[in-house]
Write a structure and sequence with these properties.
CATH architecture: Alpha-Beta Complex
Strand order of the largest sheet: 5-2-3-6-9
Oligomer: single chain
Order of helices and strands: HEHEEEHEHEEEHEE
CATH class: Alpha Beta
Helix content: 25-40%
Largest sheet: 5 strands, mixed
């Protein structure tokens, strides 16, 4: 299914192209999986044939460091758990954490909600990955598009992204 080419999609296509070029440059092993447009992990995982725990759920988190300083974190956890905001707050010494607004998350990530990559291409977005996600042989995620996902070898992901690895996942309530 081909996405409609509109000005709103331009940044998404640029981010997708940047990802493919980065992975190809490093000789990463990956597969592209086309599917109906969907960004919710629990729905798209069966479409691409992976267990939800193998999905890289990517959430942009806002962390206040006092009254005047705000940082943003790209939190990446397995698809069957939730991001633990308290853990991120403690890691960064924050005074407050919350999910970033959709417009800020999409601007920093370079793609729409539901397609955020487990890679940070923005200097103001710190990548933190939960170690439990890295136990899988492959990671599955939407490839900056709602209609295309990627299966990427975990060892290639770690070598290319060099993430900060910290426990930031909590069971779903």
């Amino acid at each position: 299914m081909e996405a409609v080419d509109t000005p709103e999609n331009q940044e998404t296509y640029e981010t997708y192209d940047k990802l493919i070029k980065l992975l190809d440059h490093h000789g990463a092993q990956y597969r592209l999986i086309d599917h109906p447009p969907e960004g919710r992990t629990e729905i798209v995982s069966p479409m691409r044939g992976n267990d939800v725990s193998e999905a890289a759920k990517c959430i942009v988190v806002m962390v206040k460091l006092g009254k005047k300083v705000t940082k943003y974190v790209l939190a990446v956890v397995p698809g069957d758990v939730r991001v633990d905001l308290g853990s991120i707050k403690a890691l960064l010494g924050g005074t407050y954490t919350a999910f970033a607004s959709a417009d800020i998350a999409e601007r920093l990530a370079g793609s729409v909600a539901g397609t955020i990559l487990p890679f940070s291409f923005h200097p103001d977005l710190e990548l933190i990955v939960d170690p439990s996600l890295l136990e899988k042989e492959e990671l599955f995620f939407n490839a900056a598009r709602l209609d295309r996902s990627m299966a990427l070898r975990t060892k290639d992901y770690v070598a290319i992204s060099s993430p900060r690895v910290e426990s930031i996942a909590a069971p779903v309530a």
